[in-house]
Specification:
four-stranded mixed beta sheet, L-fuculose-1-phosphate Aldolase, single chain, about 120 residues
């Protein structure tokens, strides 16, 4: 869980981080924004669990970000990538209307990432 600047800013803008870059595939698709709830509450935890369904990251409305992984290193690395994608989104949106990738492309990239860096 982080309170990184770009991710927190995106968490105030809408219901999801749209597929502005193929890196969203590493999170399972568009990154959902969980509805706001006071920090430390069961409501916030429940909202985060819902937003994480089928994903490895979510943004917490007006709060920050959560990433998951099979170990701490993976979760941390995902938080760095999430912050980067959020920053790219904010910069692109400030300059105009970002072009978004279609769902089929995100699915294709997710399939490629499943075996990325592995050799038979």
């Amino acid at each position: 869980h982080t309170h990184s600047v770009a991710a927190t800013a995106v968490a105030t803008l809408g219901d999801e981080l749209p597929p502005i870059h193929y890196y969203v595939a590493m999170f399972g698709g568009t990154v959902r924004v969980a509805p706001y709830a006071t920090y430390g509450t069961d409501e916030l935890a429940s909202n985060a669990v819902q937003a994480l369904r089928g994903r490895t990251a979510c943004l917490l409305g007006s709060h920050g970000a959560v990433t998951t992984g099979q170990d701490l290193k993976t979760a941390y690395d995902r938080s760095v990538y999430l912050e980067w994608v959020c920053d790219v989104y904010l910069r692109a949106a400030a300059a105009g209307t970002p072009r978004l990738l279609p769902p089929g492309e995100i699915e294709a990239v997710a399939a490629k990432l499943a075996s990325y860096g592995q050799r038979p």
